[in-house]
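Chapter summary example: a protein plus S-adenosylmethionine.
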Amino acid sequence: MSEQSGPTLQDRFAATNGDHQSMWKALWDDGTYLPWDRGQSSPSLVDLLNDKPSLITPSAPSEQLTVLVPGCGRGYDVLLFASHGLKSYGLELSSSAVTAAQENAKTSGLNPGLYNFVNGDFFTKDWQADTPEKFNVVYDYTFLCALDPSQGLREKWAERMAGLVKQGGVLICLEFPLYKDLELPGPPWPLREEIYKGLLEAVGFVREMYITPRRYLESGQGSDMVSVWRRQ
Ligand SMILES: C[S@@+](CC[C@H](N)C(=O)[O-])C[C@H]1O[C@@H](n2cnc3c(N)ncnc32)[C@H](O)[C@@H]1O
């Protein structure tokens, strides 16, 4: 998440007195200041899906795997999973982001039956009327770090992830920002390997891969890691 001139993302969220959901929606409704948007998926995810196809290969030819990308923004990652044949769902708090993702998807050339963008709050279930209750794969990049740790949301994130990933399925995290001083405010709020481990092991995930990506976005300053967590 790089910055432009004017108030930083951190300043804007600090000025909300804790109502961060309204700020995310306001940023998307305005649409002119979206500093996290890289216009593409991280090459770290592109490489993971190419290098570890077993993560997204169904056990039977008749099975179609499902994936959820919470806080999907314009949906680049949703479309990447769809391009691998998964039935792919993007979740966004902001209805303007959902509209932007739908517009972006039209240029992808992908079968529209393979992707779906849903408007809702990750921490509730009311957006799940037209989605599976649980998914084979969930992908987190720049979502956990978008949640203010002082609001107790990290533990709730982990509990919700445990409810959303099928038993035997995987949560893929592109861990970011690992370089950032833990005392600094977000978003993005700083994270560490130990924080992911503490949160996810407590709710029944076992880490089965921990990979230093060979390609990554500059925003991670070369510190991003890919972790793959199996739901027991
Ligand atoms: C830092 S942005 C990342 C967007 C996207 N993953 C990307 O990399 O371009 C975080 C996104 O999470 C969304 N978001 C924040 N809280 C959410 C919630 N509780 N449920 C669903 N989406 C949420 C915001 O609207 C925002 O688009």
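Key point: The domain at 38-231 is CATH 3.40.50.150 (Rossmann fold).
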